Amino acid sequence: HLMSISDLSPAEFSRLVLNASSHKAAIRAARDAGQPPQSLYGKLTGQTVAMMFSKRSTRTRVSTEAAVTVMGGHPMFLGKDDIQLGVNESLLDTSKVISSMTSCMVARVGPHSDVAGLAEHSAVPVINALSDDFHPLQTIADFQTIHEAFRQRQPPSDTTSLGLGGLKVAWVGDSNNVLFDLATACIKTGVDIAVASPPGYGIPAAMKQVILSAGAGVSSPGRLSETTVPEEAVRGADILVTDTWVSMGQEAEAQARVRAFAGYQITRALAERGGAKPGWKFMHCLPRHQEEVDDDVFYGPQSLVFDEAENRVYAAVAALEAFVVNKGKVV
Ligand code: CP
Ligand code: NVA
């Protein structure tokens, strides 16, 4: 199962990112030639991947459906009003039934315990497509994007290392699911990450432990720091990142959150005041709202957001290949 980036060793995580890059080259070349990519087509022939989504999605849904299709399988989208789960049937029964008929369950849920519960009772691999705690498919695509933008500066020393050690990510905004997996990956790959959130919106203590434990056994783990001052986080950063201030499920808190996050919008002025590195890049998992990043940065030359979104499909192919085709072996 792929529940979070914590499930992967640093070498496995790097391998998934590098595999995603190879799939990008193959899929783009095949598209230009008007053919299905030979290296992937057939890997899931005759197999169904159930996609159980209890929340909205553009990128995760489309990238997963496209990835399964490119591999010759059948993506079966099951929205929250399509199946009995949560209304008329338990998680345990649903998991047993769906996993007896398919090759994989890709699930978007609220509480993380829901996707963990599916995995516990499933006969097939389960991939977390976003829970309240983690978003591993996003993090694979994010690191593919970082690798594409920064690899020339720091060539990898071996084929399973991304060679990104020493970079600094500044996360300015809410401490949420996307951050938790991104920070875990930073620790594993030697990338420093500084997080600036308003008082009361920092990383919960238990989650901080999970993130920091990613450094066990890593020779030069990335360092995690926290502040309430956006300029402090941005100092010396290579990549500025944010996400929505109001995640799905937090709609009732929207007004209070927007008030609390005033002053945390990413702008060129913030990057300059804080002293981000020359040539800094901007990333956002999307969907985006203007309050967390202005148009100048979001659509500007430093923005990687649309490469990052496209990379979701290659990340999905890499994850399906590892967890479904290769039964959890990341090679
Ligand atoms: N980034 C992301 O997961 O987007 P969706 O919610 O549209 O899937
Ligand atoms: N933090 C956001 C991510 C959406 C992709 C949410 O959970 O709604």
In short:
By secondary structure, the protein is of the alpha/beta class. It has helices at residues 10-33, 59-70, 91-101, 112-121, 136-150, 177-189, 205-212, 230-234, 254-260, 268-274, 295-298, 305-325; strands spanning 48-53, 74-79, 104-108, 126-128, 168-172, 192-196, 224-227, 239-242, 281-284.
Show the helix and strand layout.
Elements: H1 10-33, E1 48-53, H2 59-70, E2 74-79, H3 91-101, E3 104-108, H4 112-121, E4 126-128, H5 136-150, E5 168-172, H6 177-189, E6 192-196, H7 205-212, E7 224-227, H8 230-234, E8 239-242, H9 254-260, H10 268-274, E9 281-284, H11 295-298, H12 305-325
Parallel strand pairs: 1-2, 1-3, 3-4, 5-6, 5-8, 6-7, 8-9
The chain binds phosphoric acid mono(formamide)ester and norvaline.
The site of phosphoric acid mono(formamide)ester (CP) has 9 residues, from helix 2.
Enzyme class: transferase
Keywords: Amino-acid biosynthesis, Arginine biosynthesis, Transferase
GO molecular function, one term: amino acid binding
Helix and strand composition category? alpha/beta
CATH superfamily of the largest domain: Aspartate/ornithine carbamoyltransferase
The helix/strand order is: HEHEHEHEHEHEHEHEHHEHH
**Shape from CA axes?**
globular
- Total DSSP helices: 12
Question: What report would you give on this structure?
Answer:
With 331 residues, the chain is α/β, with parallel strands linked by helices. It has two domains: 144 residues, Aspartate/ornithine carbamoyltransferase (Rossmann fold, 3-Layer(aba) Sandwich), CATH 3.40.50; 172 residues, Rossmann fold (3-Layer(aba) Sandwich), CATH 3.40.50.1370. Helices cover 41% and strands 13% of the residues. It contains twelve helices and nine strands. The strands form two sheets. Strands 7-6-5-8-9 form a five-stranded parallel sheet. A four-stranded parallel sheet has the order 2-1-3-4, sandwiched between helices. Strand 3, helix 4 and strand 4 form a beta-alpha-beta unit. The longest helix is centred in the first third of the chain and has 24 residues. The protein binds phosphoric acid mono(formamide)ester and norvaline. Phosphoric acid mono(formamide)ester binds next to helix 2. Pathway: Amino-acid biosynthesis; L-arginine biosynthesis; L-arginine from L-ornithine and carbamoyl phosphate: step 1/3.
